[in-house]
């Protein structure tokens, strides 16, 4: 095994740590000052540029160091005597060369985002997302395969699960990113997403019942529990208990809906959401459809799937 030279180590340390973490972990940062960045998802994680060498400080994890230390602690996770070498090999063998061309391409993407375009850089496979849904969330293959075939889910180049939102014309108008790392939770909205829309799964040709969920994973879980038993229904994830006004968009789109079944979480937020939906859409038959959760003492439908 060839020795690592000091020149090679210094070259790695000059890599843009912020861009590296964004690419590999899917985190996002906000600039505070000229050479200081704070992570949006993990606010105790900050990055500083010291004379051309980036260093990170992650208070909640008790970590600090350069890009090699970050890789060793959070990616390769080898704490043996070989840990440093394993991290260096990972960085040297990976595609982490932030050249002028790469920077220019990133500028082009930024300009497109400013124009309001929905931009998603896809992975060439669904391995990480498939494993996350199957092993971590308990979703069975026939449900995952159907979602893939209907182009409702995908995986981006940072290995986040992408849940797509479409408008009435079948045009992609946004979506949600869900991290697939079991040890780090991450959720984010795709840039320029139209907040009037949520994730939907249509079943049958004549929709007359709307099922409302707080989270997309709960929608997947409910669909699995009720697999083959639902027809002429629209399953909608509103992306949070406070975003119930999205429902109105779909009531205008599917005019034959007369029943709204609320499948929110079995907690105070879920109950408040049920109350808000009942109050706002009083012309419809609003039903509390959380009996399965209440009877099994579960907070949400994914917890119920994992329980079984």
Automatic annotation (TrEMBL):
Annotated Pfam families: DUF3991, Toprim_2
| InterPro entries in UniProt | DUF3991 (IPR025054)
Which chain regions cross the lipid bilayer? none
Boundaries of every DUF3991 domain copy: 131-203
Name-wise, this protein is DUF3991 domain-containing protein
> What organism is recorded for this protein?
Clostridium estertheticum
